[in-house]
Design brief:
Layout lengths: L1 E2 L1 E5 L24 E6 L11 E7 L5 E6 L4 E5 L5 E5 L6 E6 L5 E6 L4 E5 L7 E3 L6 E6 L5 E6 L3 E6 L5 E6 L5 E6 L5 E6 L3 E6 L5 E6 L5
Antiparallel strand pairs: 1-4, 2-3, 4-5, 5-6, 6-7, 8-9, 9-10, 10-11, 12-13, 13-14, 14-15, 16-17, 17-18, 18-19
Length: about 220
């Protein structure tokens, strides 16, 4: 988590050699510099700057969302750093955000157990996906935007309709603290993992469990 401000990196870290047989030397990692630093000024001068716990970019790279412990959802113009929207409907720490691939919706969630679906083109009241859940720490849209997966501090993974917010499936998670979700490129599979170190894969349409992979004995 980043305190006070966050940095947009101007270049990606070199990944070549990270999985080679020989160890990767520290000297092989290039130095990167920030293109821009955006300072997260609090709404009131006497308030502290937030702890940032989630970032997301839309598919075009034009919109950047920042969420954190101040319960706010901020949407910036990624090129200029200008604040476009300032959403304040969450009532606890916001942990995750994800843009729908078409860029028209933004999903956010956190410790209040509510998944909120925002129209990024306006400041209107957000739509709610499903009922109140345990704390949600991770969100993922399927590539076509038709499904939204959510998980967190519970032994369940939920899949919602990505457009209407209706609950489609409730799956048994590989542990009670899930921090990572990912759809396959064709959207047919969903993977989840967390504190248990167990990776579980399902058929994303019917919820059939396909495989468990013990990745690690640690989280």
């Amino acid at each position: 988590m980043l305190k006070s401000s966050f940095i947009i990196l101007g270049a990606a870290l070199l990944s070549a050699g990270l999985f080679a047989d020989s160890p990767t030397l520290a000297e092989a990692v290039p130095e990167v510099a920030a293109e821009r630093v955006i300072d997260l000024a609090p709404p009131e001068p006497e308030e502290n700057k937030p702890v940032v716990s989630g970032l997301s970019l839309d598919a075009t790279g034009k919109l950047l969302t920042v969420v954190g412990d101040d319960h706010l959802v901020r949407v910036f113009d990624a090129a200029t750093g200008r604040l476009l929207h300032h959403f304040a409907w969450h009532v606890d720490w916001v942990r995750a955000s994800a843009f729908r691939p078409d860029g028209r919706r933004l999903a956010t969630s956190g410790a209040d157990g509510r998944i909120r679906l925002w129209n990024v083109a306006s400041d209107e009241r957000p739509q709610l996906a499903g009922e109140r859940l345990p704390a949600i720490y991770t969100l993922a849209y399927s590539p076509d935007g038709g499904k939204l997966a959510a998980a967190g501090f519970a032994d369940k993974v939920w899949i919602f309709d990505g457009r209407q917010g209706r609950l489609l499936l409730e799956l048994d998670a590989p542990g009670g603290d899930i921090r990572a979700l990912s759809f396959s490129p064709d959207g047919a599979r969903l993977a989840a993992a967390g504190r248990s170190g167990l990776l579980r894969i399902w058929d994303a349409d019917g919820g059939r469990q396909i495989a468990d992979v013990q990745v690690s004995s640690r989280r």
